[in-house]
Each structure stands twice: as C-alpha cells, then as structure tokens.
Amino acid sequence: MNRGFRINTLINGSGILAGLGLSAGLAAFAFAGPQTQVPTTLNDFAMPGTQPNSLDHPIASSDSCASCHGFYDDVHSPLSTWSASMMGQSMRDPVFHAALSIANQDAAFAGDLCLRCHTPSGWLEGRSTPTDGSALNEIDMQGVNCNFCHRMVDPVYQPGVSPDVDQAILSALGSDLPTPAQTHSGSFVMDNLDRRRGPYDEGPNFSYHEWEQSPFHQSSSMCATCHDVSNPVFALQPDGTYSLDLASLDAPHPTGNVYETFPVERTYSEWLMSDFAQGPVAIGDRYETTLTEVSSCQDCHMPEANTPACRFEGDRPNYSTHSFNGGNNWVLNAVRNLNDNDFVTGLLPDLVTQSIERAEEMLRDASDMELSMVNDDLNVRIINQTGHKLPTGYPEGRRMWINVQFFDGSDSMIGELGAYDDLTAELTTADTKVYEAKLGLDESVSAATGVPVGPNFHFVLSNKRYKDNRIPPRGFTNANFQSVQAEPIAYSYADGDYWDDTQFVVPAGAARADVRVYYQASSKEYMEFLRDENVNSVGDVNNPSTGEIVYEQWVINGMSPIVEMDFASLMLPAGCPPDLTGDGQLNFFDISAFLSAFSAQDPAADFTGDGLFNFFDISAFLSAFSAGCP
Questions:
Q1: pLDDT in the model for residue 13
Q2: SS3 per-residue string spanning 267-318
Q3: What percent of the chain is predicted at pLDDT more than 90?
Q4: Cα radius of gyration rounded to whole Å, the chain
Q5: How confident is the model at residue 539 (pLDDT cuts 50, 70, 90)?
C-alpha cells in the first residue's frame, strides 16, 4: 500500500513477511541441499543483432583513444571519466565475477547472457566461451569500452537521420536484425568497420579516424541495449507466469520480445513510461548538468558541460561528459585493490575519489523528503526526482530505507527505527520501510533445480517477482508499468504518484524527529550469498572463490558504505506523555493506565520508542511523571 502505510514499532519480521504473502521460511536466502544445474546451452541465450566473429575490424583498445581524449582534464576528458566509471570497470568488477560464477553454476552457459553487456568486445570476438570469462584478453577487460559504444548502430534506420552506411549494415543482418522490442540484454548492432560515431559533425577536414555523425548516441534507446535485461529462458505464459520447459531447451526464445521474457531489470522501460520520455522535465538544479530541463538517460548520467572533448580543440557546446555515474560507491576501490597497475585500469586515485563523490552526489539529487503530521503519526514522504524507479537497475542487494530517530525535550534519543549498524552491516528492517525488488523461484523451477521456493539471489533461476515497492517516476500509471513488466509487487501506488508516504507511530515523550533516507549498493545478505553459494574453491585459502574474494573486498571497503540521500527534522506537537488518561492531570489513574498498557504491550507504554517493553519504559514513564506536565 502507499498512502497511510503505518509503521508500528511493535511489528515484527514475521508480520512484515505475512504482509507480503510470504512465510519466514520462504524468505531465507541461503540455499541448502542438492541442486541441479539447468541444462541450458548457448542457443538458449541467443538473440538477434551482430553475431560473434562477424566484425571486419576488431574492437580497438581504449588505450588508442588516450592521446587525444584522455587525461588532459581529469574532471571532463572522456577517457579519464570513463575509466573511473562502472562502465569502464564492468569486466573487472569483483561483484560481477562472483555473480557470474553462480550464474554458470545455476544454468549451463548462463554467463553468456552476462558477458554480452559486461565485455561486448570479448563477446563479439568469440572469447566469451567458455562463459566463465577465462578466455578474455586485456582489451576485453576494459568492459564497455570507447570503441564499442562509438561503433554501435541504431537498429531502426531513419532516412536522412541515420548515417547512410547504416542501411547496408542493417540489411546485411537479415533475420538477425533486432526489432525495437528485441534491443535488450545486449542485442546490439555494430558497424563492422572502425567508423567511430558520435553526435557531432566533424567536418570534411577531420582525418584522425573514420567517423559518422550519429543522433543515436544521444538517444535513450541506445541505453536500452543493456539497461533492459531479461532472461530469455523463461517464456511468458497466458496466465502471467514464466515457465521453464526443459524439453524445449537448446533453442532461442521464440520471439525474443523483451516483454515476453522474464524481467530482471527494466530501467529503460521505466523511463519509457515516464514523463521524461515525453519531453524535457524541469527538476531543478540537479545532476551537475547545464540543462534546466532533462529528458534522456544521457541528460543525467552524461551531464552536459561546455568543455573540450579532445585535447586539441576548444570548448564544445553541450558536450556530454563521460562520467556515467550511478549509485556505486565502493567497487572502484575494490577493483584498484585487486589490480596492481592503475595505469592499466585507468583508476588513478584522484579519478576514483571524484567518481565516488559524483555517485554520492547523484544519490543525494535523486530524491527529496517532506515531513508532516497525520493525526498523531509522523508522515515521511519521499519524492522520486529521477526518470526511473528509485532505486532502479540490478535488484540484487540494492536497497533504500527510512531511518527515524526520536528525541525527547532534553535532546536525548528515545527511539530509533530503521537502525543500521556500521560495524556489522546489519539493518533493522522490521520497524521501517525498505525500498527494494526481490526476485525468486516458483514451485515449478524449484522442483527442477532443488533451490527453495521464494525470494533469493539466484537471479538466472528467478521466474517470479515477489516484491517491488520502489518509487515510480513522474508519469507513472499502473497500466503502463504493467505493460512493461514493472508494476509494483506486494505494494501499490496510485496513478500519477511519484512519491511514497510512510507513517510512523510517535513514541510518548518525543519532542523531535530526525529522519534520513539511506541507500546501500550491496547488502550484507547479498554479499554473504555470493561468498557462501559459490562452490568453486570454497575454503581453499590458496585458491579462494570469486565469492570469497569479493566478500573480503566488501569488508575492506567499508561493507558498502551507506549514503545519506535526504535529511530533515520535525519538531513534534507538544503534549504531556505521562497523562495517559488525557484529563490534564497527573495522578494515580495515569499510573494505573500505564501499568495496564505496559501489561498489554500497548504502544502507549513504549516510552523509549524501541518497540520493547521493559524496565527502561517504566523508568522513562516515572521520570516524565515526576517532571510533570507543562
């Protein structure tokens, strides 16, 4: 539910699960017992677009771009900012490697689905087999590199708009030409020659490299290629479920339509169904762009600036910086720790610091918060200021939550909800709202694999959405989001909502509420899953698994430090908490009312606001009773 969702400090974990239609047992993430690998093949993950080993010119190393586009301006130069982004480190990301290992364990050759977007050069040149990435070379480790992006071709030819050469490239694909509904999960079209594309007309005298002017590179549809992700093994059924037909394996999905395959990520589709896709939206001074209104993915994630794009030229108006910031604030440091040479990775210390600062600033720009009182409850409204769900993207381990601290008149904290322990990385979830998506298995896939029914982190086996209460963007309607497999699950928003309200019970004696919204990229539960479920070399100190490696880096790097997105404080209405009878007098009847409430574990007797009923509540009540009423 949305409006009026009320958090009571007495609610427990089983109550939250019951509200989602789950049991405590089904919520367990750890897998225990025998597991059967799904016998998929490369054919099951095949999709249209440019196929491996079909390029006349290989994907060039980003090092070849450095002399003109790198390291002349650490804040703006394309190579410098790209190299310190998760795009530039997508194949060195240790979280990805651990997830890739488990994906291959769960379904044979499933890593092919992952490698298409994390190392497109390796995939295009046939080095993604074996699908554990062991055949990749140093260029492939550059992830989503410069030459790959700047050779992408719009699969929809537009006469007079698309480069003329694209018509022949698209025609040569024949039946492999993807439709707009098929440009997801790495179904890209490439120029088979090294003709580098971008939005500018370089003029007739430009001779540094072959080039084409490409409006596609400023369109959100380019981002759809890897930011709508589906598992093509699971086909949508008439009843809305997604089935695994073991007898039909070793064949591509019959249509490849993004909305007929199981949804893993729908960031592009969320944008497509928002107001941002219809035209520019004014969202104030956000995202470090010179624009006053934003529309496309690039407008926010490649903010415009008037700066050189090359060391040999002056400022380019409306140049899109190549920072590609999202919400990750720890993995770049992990990559540095795991790679000896910063000049190979491009992760110079200052660049990493700047990139993390930009990511955290983007998170702070992503939402606003408003506090108010609804009857006697504290109402927290979180407003989504992005063009997609908040948070969005890869659902595993990402979360955002509300933290509330109540203080009495002497400025002592008397209660906290949504508490996070920095020493253990444990979040108290039972008394607050956590915004997240949870995927998992239904009974049929559980029976075929041995993995328990319910939400878990085995994302290549997931065929059911168990929870999605993430806040929608401007322009949200339930019908539109359902049409792109992105409707809320175990929650509801009204058409037009791009905010969410949560009401919290105010404990007796509270004079002020401090409220924060926090974000975390990688939860403890997810990192423990990556460590414990990776069967390769587990426990071998001389040959640790990818899960053990990333877990160690997670610990070293602050256990995915939480980011404060919003903060606000509200003075609460004055009252007389120990006057439980409400007659304006403090006497024996108030003591009797307190004892009755305490015995019944009524929130009125929770004077510390911690959801517990013990000696401290009695002490707090007696102190308030002795102090009298104003």
A1: 30
A2: HHHHHHCCHHHHCCECCCCCCCCCCCCECCHHHHHCCEEEECCCCCCCCEEE
A3: 81
A4: 27
A5: low
